[in-house]
Amino acid sequence: MRRILVPTDFSEQAGFAMDLACQIARNTQIEVVAIHVLDHTGLFDFSAGSTAYPLMGNPAGLDYDQQFLESFYQSAEEKCAKFLEPFQQPGLRITKKVKVGSAFHFITEEISEEKTDLVIMGSKGVSGFEEVLIGSNTEK
Q1: Domains plus CATH for the chain?
Q2: Contact, 137 vs 9, CB < 8 A?
Q3: What is the 3-state secondary structure (H, E, C) of 2-52?
Q4: In this predicted structure, what is the pLDDT of residue 134?
Q5: DSSP H helical ranges for the chain
């Protein structure tokens, strides 16, 4: 085994998953990759007259506030670094990745392209209403 992927939303359950991955990888050559994906569905321009294009990817070439995007991404980078602080220790290789888009897309891409051996993902049950609206990335 060479790589363990831990998708994180910085929740308590994600912390449990990260802790387990670190226990498995401790004092080995196994790399633990923590990935946080900023859900792009909340990043749409709904201003008057606009057609809700995603801010990342920008297929129509629209002019978006670059400073906002950089701030949003930087905040996620900082949260991820803070989340990983308690897990950093000698003999443990932890890599941090922050992406913007679909969690399902980037997690499956990471698994296939980077030859991930194991995925450890925390999960918390959602209500029936939440499940209908947002689904569960763990289940996917």
Answers
A1: 3-134 (3.40.50.620)
A2: no
A3: CEEEEECCCCHHHHHHHHHHHHHHCCCCCEEEEEEEEEHHHCECCCCCCCC
A4: 45
A5: 12-25, 66-84, 103-113, 128-134
For 15-52, the pLDDT digits (tens) are: 999 999 999 999 898 999 999 998 765 554 444 444 44
Tell me which DSSP letter residue 28 carries. Answer: S
Q: What would the two tokens of residue 97 be?
A: 């990745």
Q: Which helix (H) or strand (E) holds 93?
A: strand 93-101
* Residue 25 token pair: 């990888």
Q: What is the secondary structure of 119-138 as a DSSP string? A: E--------HHHHHHH--TT
Report residues of the chain scoring pLDDT below 50: 44-56, 59-60, 62, 128-135, 138
